[in-house]
Specification:
This protein is 26% helix and 30% strand. It is an alpha+beta fold. The longest helix is centred in the C-terminal third of the chain and has 18 residues. The protein is globular.
């Protein structure tokens, strides 16, 4: 991927660029409220040949001398992703130039890229910013003790990331996290799952985190949840309400598991939603 091919949008004086970290794979067996055969059919009808692939996006925000990253990809955890650093270099960005990293949440495919294989912070000059509920959840030993075996590794990855940036970790509770950047609570996927909205001039954009993992399935079928959701019912409710909101406003969206074009709008046709990627 070369720098001229990286999808970007201009929001006021901000340049927001989708930077791919690569892919992970997940079986349709971890989806609820849909038959796996129906899920495969929807992917096939959308022209997606690798039905179980989930793309991993991060977003680079540049303005006024600031260089901000939203999420840090998987970093190769479980052989997921791992392309972020190389693609940032293709975009002309050295890791040392990132001065803030906003987290939508702390699942491994969002924080795995914060630390390298030797346990060193990949972004040595970056402040790490996350909702206080998100940090508190992963740091809570009671939550760790109650977690199923398959999820315990997630706690270790999140804690390693928080510890690696402990001198530069900032949590927030309100809505303004940086000038011109508004945090939007999007509960259900994790305890502190957060979107980030940019409103400048007559343009707006919402980075909505993990509202969907399989866009061509969960946008038209928002009741479909995934095993990664901590509260599946709340996540589905949040997804339905947000789809209605962004469709009505025709708001430009960005999401960590949208396809490589990175930016899209949601359109409502009758009682259903469709996703249309931005040019």
């Amino acid at each position: 991927m070369s720098s001229f091919a990286l999808p970007s949008q201009q929001i006021g004086d901000l340049t927001i660029t989708a930077v791919s970290d690569g892919y992970l794979h997940a079986s349709f067996d971890i989806l609820a409220n849909i038959d796996p055969a129906d899920a495969a059919r929807m992917q096939e009808n959308a022209g997606i040949t690798d039905h179980t692939s989930i793309h991993i996006n991060c977003y680079l925000v540049r303005s006024g001398g600031r260089t901000i990253l939203i999420d840090a990809g998987a970093g190769g955890f479980k052989q997921w992703g791992g392309r972020l650093k190389a693609n940032l270099l293709h975009a002309g960005i050295q890791p040392s130039e990132i001065d803030a990293i906003l987290l939508t949440h702390a699942h491994p495919d969002h924080v795995g890229g914060l630390m390298d294989a030797s346990g060193e912070a990949v972004f040595p000059n970056a402040e790490l910013v996350a909702h206080h509920r998100e940090v508190a959840f992963w740091q809570d030993d009671g939550n760790l003790s109650r977690a199923p075996d398959r999820a315990r590794g997630n706690f270790l990855v999140a804690r390693q990331a928080f510890d690696g940036y402990r001198d530069r970790l900032r949590t927030f509770e309100g809505s303004e996290v940086l000038p011109g950047v508004t945090a939007m609570p999007l509960p259900g996927h994790t305890a502190g799952h957060t979107g980030y909205r940019f409103d400048l001039g007559d343009k707006s954009l919402l980075v909505w985190g993990d509202i969907v993992h399989f866009p061509q399935i969960q946008v038209p079928r928002p009741e479909v949840s995934i095993a990664f959701d901590q509260d599946a019912h709340l996540a589905a409710d949040t997804r339905s309400r947000l789809l209605d909101c962004v469709a009505a406003e025709q708001l430009l969206i960005a999401g960590m598991h949208l396809s490589e074009p990175g930016f899209a709008r949601i359109k409502r046709t009758g009682g259903s939603y469709d996703i249309a990627y931005a040019e």
